[in-house]
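User: Structure with 6-O-phosphoryl inosine monophosphate, tokens only please.
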Amino acid sequence: MPSNVIVGLQWGDEGKGKITDFLSKNSDYVIRYQGGNNSGHSIHIENNYFILHLIPSGIVYPNVKCIIGPGMVVDPKFLIKELINLKSMGINVDNIFIAKRSHIIMPYHILLDKYKEEYLGKNFIGTTNKGIGPAYEDKISRIGIRMLDFFYPDIFYKKLKNNIELKNIIFKKIYKKPTISVEIIYKKYMEYAKILSSRIIDAVYEIHIALNKNKRILFEGAQAMLLDIDYGTYPFVTTSSSTTGGVCVGSGIPPVGFDNFFGVIKSYCTRVGNGPFPTEIIKTKLVNYLRNKGNEYGSTTKRPRRCGWLDLVAIKYSCKINGINYLIMTKLDVLNGLNYIKICIKYEIDGLEVNYFTPDIGNNKINCIYKKFKGWNQNICDIKEYENLPINCKKYINFIEEYIGLKIILISIGSERNKNIIKYKHLFYKIFSSEKI
Ligand code: IMO
Ligand code: MG
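Assistant:
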């Protein structure tokens, strides 16, 4: 089963989209298995910028089949817009399929997301307000409506009516907000059903056939390890399993036979929304530098991202939970021109040094213990070979590899598809066994 998995190891926005696109050339399928349109995956090819929220990042290659997997929550209105937008940019969208088992995001989920955040006040999560959490809540409470239900209008109507009756009580009694109408939503959603029905498939069957035929499958993670519902910085997390463990649950395959688990890290760290961020930088000048050079504004919500130094304590933990084989580093070029760069190698919690990522982090003030590196005053964006990187840059990379105990197989040095340095060529070409890349 030639299958590879790509996940983010920080708080999202590591550049997974660019990496997935780069590796898609050698894939037959690209499958997303969790989350929804809370993601924002950017791809830059020549003068075209594609930002994908729901559709897997393999879509720019016309022969790659893209599957919105069973573990996802899908806003059909948003998906239709994304399809139209991609088509208008000249992308072939015929190969995009949606799992019958995926859950539908309804307008009431988006309202509930917003009302809950307002209710939480200063303890807000800082969600993307796309209805992701409430849609997963309904799934778990077994009242969710699935893509499958689009094929059964009577069943769809009944489920919708039951849901809206329940939600209207919550809107009225708890949040003191207006109620919503079943009929209007039913009508709209039946239109969406008509537009999408030819793409809705039994994805599990399709994926198993692909596996039997030895097709090359790339699983694209969204969000990231530290936003995972179980192992992230709870409660400031998303509502799905964004670890490699989530691949099996979210695509209906057994936990055997994967080839490689790639963990994507950005050369520094960012986070959008509320929640602990031990290495967050307070100095505004430095934050502005990273934010502007790295374009650290949410591609889904446009919010400015919080910025910080690389946190190796957190990344080591992420590697363990995800069983990462190889690291991929992105945005190394953003660090060009800094006098110094810091890496967090330990935490100090309550006067004690700690070198692992504990769940107590959310309840304590953390002091980070850093190792300081000299910067490099050179533009590295056009460098093709690892050997030609500035010595200080190589020291930074080598330290990370040693600390984590894994190889950084690929380094991205610009947003464009081909701005990459393959650090271990022999290994890389063995994994992707092709001269195509
Ligand atoms: P990609 O795939 C960064 C964050 C939100 C919020 C928390 C919960 O682009 O890396 P949600 O709407 O999911 O209930 O919000 O998770 N979040 C992300 N942050 N990148 C993402 O996706 C994110 N998806 C959700 O900001 O803090
Ligand atoms: Mg994002």
